[in-house]
Amino acid sequence: DTGVSQDPRHKITKRGQNVTFRCDPISEHNRLYWYRQTLGQGPEFLTYFQNEAQLEKSRLLSDRFSAERPKGSFSTLEIQRTEQGDSAMYLCASSQLQFSGNTIYFGEGSWLTVV
Amino acid sequence: SQQGEEDPQALSIQEGENATMNCSYKTSINNLQWYRQNSGRGLVHLILIRSNEREKHSGRLRVTLDTSKKSSSLLITASRAADTASYFCATVGANSKLTFGKGITLSVRP
Questions:
Q1: Which residues are CB-contacts of B28 (< 8 A; sequence separation ≥ 6)?
Q2: DSSP A70-100
Q3: What SS3 state is found at B102?
Q4: Contact, B79 vs B18, CB < 8 A?
Q5: In sequence order, what are the residues at sequence separation of 6 or more whose Cβ sits closer than 8 angstroms to the Cβ of residue A1?
Q6: Does B103 contact chain A (CB < 8 Å)?
Q7: Is A42 close to B102, i.e. CB distance below 8 A?
Q8: Which of B31, B56, B71, B95 is packed most tightly, with the most Cβ within 10 A?
Q9: How confident is the model at residue A72 (pLDDT cuts 50, 70, 90)?
Q10: Which of B33, B95, B101 has its CB closest to that of A56?
């Protein structure tokens, strides 16, 4: 399968614990995005990378959130000291930058429930 | 912040009918993309239309774009029960990231 892969698909954690999500983009895609989606809402942008460089971070990304893409391939999103408000689906997407417009492909998402 | 606004918020039709969904946005765009999302799943890319294009087709899908009105529409012809899902439009500006609306819930009754 050559799609965007996310792991784990579901995570239940206690408030205050740290969690990490992993995303493997489509091979050779140089752009990687993280989004968050809550029930009944559209996805909200969190951050994106071009290769290993993190180019933009949303104000939604508090100091408890950190994302990395160390070798320009897979990425991790870590949430420290989780809060109930962090419960959401975390979506990863990737694309190949093109001047003519880039189709952005999403993974299946990682569901986080903070109890 | 969410740029797009889809209309209607919910749509219920009979199998075989056409479904039309509209999207409006606020700022200039590079392209606009439509996605489908089944309950609890990730987003599936349907179609991309660039700012210099007015209409695109893909199978039973037809997308239009009117940049003067900052609006787009998605038409699904001959709908099927399997088309039941949420549909999102998302705009891409100069910053190359997607900005989504709240989505449209489509129900196709068998």
A1: B51, B67, B93
A2: TTSS-EEEEE-S--GGG-EEEEEEEE---TT
A3: coil
A4: yes
A5: none
A6: yes
A7: yes
A8: B31
A9: confident
A10: B95
